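Task: encode each sequence below as structure tokens.

Item 1
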Amino acid sequence: MTQTIQTNGVAVPDQIEIERTFPVPPERVWTALTDPGELARWFGTAAEVDLRPGGALRFVFGTSWDVSGVIEVIEPPRRLVYAWEADADVASGPGTPPMTRVEFVLDPIPDGTRLRVVESGFGALPASIRRSSRDGRVTGWTREMDHLVAYVTGEGD
């Protein structure tokens, strides 16, 4: 059950969930999610990934935006969890941007892979960015998952 938080009288769900299916094995999707060179082909313009629990990651989206985070869980090729900046421009403390948690779960299905992406923690964000962060991530993940499908199926090259 998704928790809902009130922000200025408007309900804001604590998490978002997006699911896609791919006609390729989980190992192929896993590589696209974790290899910096592959990430840069569909998720932003550059990526740095230290693929281990506690490892740092950074995604660059052109010249306008980049986001950093820390890997929490890695279970190749089935599950990846990291915390990342919800809004690098709004610090909740000295130099500490508010964070959300992203979980990728890859399940093999008869004709490929089902990928579920859950981003949570919006309810813990400062009220001033809670709704805009969540709305921005819904738009962003929808677009990026479409890019990932195109990339791993060869339609995005």
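Item 2
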Amino acid sequence: MPVQAVAPGTAQRAVTAAVTAAVRPAVACSSGGSGGGAQGPVVRSADSQILLEWPVDSGADTYNVYYDTVTPLDKNSATLLNASVGLITGNSTIVPGLDNGTTYYAWVAPVTSGTEGAPVSLGEATPRPGDWASWPSRSSRR
């Protein structure tokens, strides 16, 4: 069988689908940032990970996602998720490998033509053993 090229983000979408299949309500999480309501950002906890979703920025080519255990955002100490997962082209992602019981804060910044826009707070979540998060029902992912 010939090898086929895989579009960027395909593996991430497969992981997202697997997590989505384990539909159990998220706990110990909150959403924040601007926008609010159904179109605002969402942060959900899961076992050793947090799941992030934010409104689509129609001008963005990609997104930079930062996370840290302190707030406000300090890019010098926060972790840039893209450094480990590569380009994030959709408006959702998973931050894996986190310590259960620790509160994490997340931010997203749109990137257009290689220029990063202002980061926006997504909120916070505290992963716990056995937690499974489900994505919100809205269909804004691309």
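Check on item 2: Strands lie at 29-31, 42-46, 49-53, 62-68, 79-80, 92-95, 104-112, 115-116, 120-125. Residues 22 and 106 are 23 Å apart (CA to CA).
End of task.
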